[in-house]
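Example for tutorial group B:
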């Protein structure tokens, strides 16, 4: 009867250890965003979990005290009672061992068995279950852990105080906080969610692009100066409206003398409103109706500019280079396209920046950004080698060292790029095919 009681007590202690181990993993692994959402819905259990998370030192110390005591009493019971019972059983087997040797063998067997049971049922199984159901399990264990923390407060206070003194002696912060999720961890979770079908590929791509937009400079997404459509300041409003129809744009920069002197932005709706209310105004210069332009440096982060344009209720910014000249322009649509892909409507001209050919090759506009090409071929930037250019055409010119002619090709990392057309001194269309890296020499060929 005494043996059965001892075994039941060992089982209870291992179960208590399992509860504490599962509680620790569940509380630490529970997503704080989900807990906050539950708390806002009125969940008192979620609020308790958040309180424990905000003071991890107290929570972890409480759990560690409980686990240590459970392990201590399990070992004590094994050493006092179970070893004696096992030694008696071994003695009945008439083994050629003395009493001390039988006791030693019994101690090894009991210790091995208890360690196995404690590790499997007291640690591994509960922790695995806790990882799989962290959020819900954290809600269930929060109240018992809080009560245990209150009961163990004197011991925890002594342990915490001693720990803080040691940390301060080494110049480390005394108060611990659970780390927030990092960008890399978030993207890994996003990838796992995509693999499991929790989010679609397009949704995952959009989130990843949002992170990349924070690191992308405006220079990489702007319309370059050579492609800008703009209006001379003294151009009549009537002709300006014709230019709006010809280009299909709803906003155009207005310049005085040359593009380095932008004086404002003319909106097509402003032009129509003026002409509608005063037909005689159609002969007046468009500078009178231009709105102030918003200027940004080319090194500005695209993510920051997106927020600024939204806050200013502005849809266009003029990009200035390091020498104070106009480098190009960027619109709200350009920035949004970095997130969701190309946006086309019935007024857009027929234009395909990247087009897959029947041969499996890709035809690319030279103005396409290098990162778009990398995404298309699922490559890393390092595979192209060092470069300064932002566009495919610029990369070809940089690698060749001269302006190419139509038909000239160059190997860039695993990509073979053939220039199909040139527009004056700018690369027009390019045929790109992925080849073995063994032949990647970076040399051009006619």
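The residue assignment follows.
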């Amino acid at each position: 009867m005494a043996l059965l009681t001892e075994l039941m007590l060992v089982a209870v202690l291992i179960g208590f250890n399992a509860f504490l181990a599962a509680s620790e993993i569940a509380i630490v692994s529970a997503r704080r965003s989900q807990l906050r959402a539950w708390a806002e819905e009125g969940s008192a259990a979620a609020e308790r979990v958040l309180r424990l998370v905000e003071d991890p030192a107290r929570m972890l110390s409480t759990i560690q005290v409980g686990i240590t005591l459970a392990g201590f009493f399990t070992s004590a019971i094994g050493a006092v009672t179970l070893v004696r019972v096992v030694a008696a059983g071994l003695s009945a087997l008439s083994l050629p061992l003395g009493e001390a040797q039988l006791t030693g063998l019994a101690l090894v067997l009991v210790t091995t068995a208890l360690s196995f049971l404690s590790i499997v049922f007291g640690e591994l199984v509960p922790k695995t279950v806790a990882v799989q159901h962290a959020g819900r399990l954290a809600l269930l264990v929060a109240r018992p852990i809080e009560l245990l923390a209150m009961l163990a407060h004197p011991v925890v206070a002594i342990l915490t105080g001693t720990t803080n003194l040691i940390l301060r002696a080494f110049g480390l912060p005394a108060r611990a906080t659970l780390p927030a999720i990092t960008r890399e961890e978030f993207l890994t979770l996003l990838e796992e969610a995509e693999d499991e079908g929790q989010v679609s590929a397009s949704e995952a791509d959009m989130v990843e692009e949002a992170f990349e937009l924070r690191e992308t400079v405006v220079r990489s997404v702007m319309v370059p100066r050579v492609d800008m459509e703009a209006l001379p300041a003294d151009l009549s409003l009537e002709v300006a409206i014709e230019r709006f129809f010809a280009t299909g744009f709803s906003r155009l920069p207005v310049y005085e003398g040359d593009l380095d002197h932008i004086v404002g932005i003319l909106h097509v709706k402003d032009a129509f409103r003026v002409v509608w209310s005063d037909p005689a105004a159609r002969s007046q210069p468009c500078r009178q109706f231009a709105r102030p332009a918003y200027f940004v440096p080319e090194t500005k982060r695209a993510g920051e500019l997106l927020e600024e344009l939204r806050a200013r209720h502005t849809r266009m910014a003029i990009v200035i280079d390091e020498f104070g000249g106009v480098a190009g322009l960027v619109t709200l649509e350009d920035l949004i396209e970095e997130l969701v892909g190309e946006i086309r409507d019935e007024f857009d001209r027929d234009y395909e920046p990247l087009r897959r050919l029947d041969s499996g090759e890709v035809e690319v506009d030279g103005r396409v950004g290098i990162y778009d090409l990398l995404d298309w071929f699922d490559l890393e930037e390092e595979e192209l080698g060092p470069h300064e250019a932002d566009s495919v055409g610029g990369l070809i010119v940089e690698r060749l060292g001269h302006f190419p002619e139509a038909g000239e090709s160059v190997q860039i990392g695993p990509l073979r790029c053939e220039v199909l057309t040139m527009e004056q001194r700018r690369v027009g269309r390019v045929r790109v095919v992925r080849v073995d890296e063994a032949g990647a020499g970076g040399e051009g060929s006619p």
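The longest helix spans residues 56-92. Compare this with the pattern of hydrophobic and polar residues in the output above.
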